[in-house]
Specification:
mainly alpha, rod-shaped
Protein backbone atom coordinates (compact mmCIF):
# COMPACT_ATOMS: atom_id res chain seq x y z
CA UNK A 1 0.00 0.00 0.00
CA UNK A 2 1.45 3.29 -1.06
CA UNK A 3 0.64 6.51 0.72
CA UNK A 4 0.90 9.91 -0.85
CA UNK A 5 2.54 12.47 1.37
CA UNK A 6 0.90 15.85 1.21
CA UNK A 7 2.97 19.00 1.44
CA UNK A 8 3.14 20.18 5.02
CA UNK A 9 1.21 23.25 6.09
CA UNK A 10 4.11 24.47 8.22
CA UNK A 11 7.41 25.86 7.06
CA UNK A 12 10.31 23.44 6.93
CA UNK A 13 13.94 24.39 6.72
CA UNK A 14 16.85 22.20 5.85
CA UNK A 15 19.18 21.41 8.73
CA UNK A 16 22.18 22.69 6.82
CA UNK A 17 20.48 26.07 6.47
CA UNK A 18 19.62 26.51 10.16
CA UNK A 19 22.53 24.71 11.83
CA UNK A 20 24.66 27.82 12.41
CA UNK A 21 21.74 29.83 13.79
CA UNK A 22 20.76 27.02 16.15
CA UNK A 23 24.35 26.64 17.37
CA UNK A 24 24.56 30.38 18.06
CA UNK A 25 21.31 30.27 20.01
CA UNK A 26 22.56 27.31 22.05
CA UNK A 27 25.87 29.07 22.75
CA UNK A 28 23.96 32.16 23.89
CA UNK A 29 21.77 30.05 26.18
CA UNK A 30 24.81 28.32 27.69
CA UNK A 31 26.57 31.65 28.23
CA UNK A 32 23.45 33.11 29.83
CA UNK A 33 23.16 30.08 32.11
CA UNK A 34 26.82 30.39 33.13
CA UNK A 35 26.31 34.06 34.03
CA UNK A 36 23.28 33.15 36.13
CA UNK A 37 25.15 30.33 37.86
CA UNK A 38 27.97 32.72 38.76
CA UNK A 39 25.47 35.25 40.11
CA UNK A 40 23.78 32.53 42.17
CA UNK A 41 27.13 31.42 43.58
CA UNK A 42 27.97 35.01 44.58
CA UNK A 43 24.58 35.50 46.23
CA UNK A 44 24.96 32.17 48.01
CA UNK A 45 28.39 33.16 49.35
CA UNK A 46 27.02 36.52 50.55
CA UNK A 47 24.10 34.78 52.21
CA UNK A 48 26.42 32.35 53.93
CA UNK A 49 28.50 35.26 55.28
CA UNK A 50 25.37 37.02 56.52
CA UNK A 51 24.12 33.84 58.18
CA UNK A 52 27.48 33.41 59.89
CA UNK A 53 27.32 36.99 61.20
CA UNK A 54 23.75 36.45 62.36
CA UNK A 55 24.76 33.27 64.18
CA UNK A 56 27.54 35.18 65.96
CA UNK A 57 25.08 37.89 67.00
CA UNK A 58 22.65 35.25 68.28
CA UNK A 59 25.40 33.56 70.29
CA UNK A 60 26.50 36.91 71.77
CA UNK A 61 22.93 37.83 72.70
CA UNK A 62 22.40 34.40 74.26
CA UNK A 63 25.59 34.77 76.30
CA UNK A 64 24.55 38.24 77.52
CA UNK A 65 21.09 37.02 78.49
CA UNK A 66 22.58 34.07 80.36
CA UNK A 67 25.04 36.38 82.14
CA UNK A 68 22.23 38.77 83.12
CA UNK A 69 20.13 35.86 84.38
CA UNK A 70 22.97 34.52 86.50
CA UNK A 71 23.65 37.98 87.94
CA UNK A 72 19.96 38.45 88.74
CA UNK A 73 19.73 34.98 90.31
CA UNK A 74 22.81 35.73 92.44
CA UNK A 75 21.29 39.03 93.59
CA UNK A 76 18.03 37.30 94.52
CA UNK A 77 19.93 34.63 96.41
CA UNK A 78 21.93 37.29 98.27
CA UNK A 79 18.76 39.13 99.17
CA UNK A 80 17.12 35.97 100.52
CA UNK A 81 20.21 35.24 102.62
CA UNK A 82 20.11 38.78 104.13
CA UNK A 83 16.36 38.47 104.64
CA UNK A 84 16.82 35.52 106.98
CA UNK A 85 19.80 36.93 108.88
Amino acid sequence: MLCVHKAPEHACDRIIDIEEKQLEELKALVLNAQVKVKACEEVSANLENMLSTLQEQKDNAHARILEAFKTYAALLEKRQVYKYV
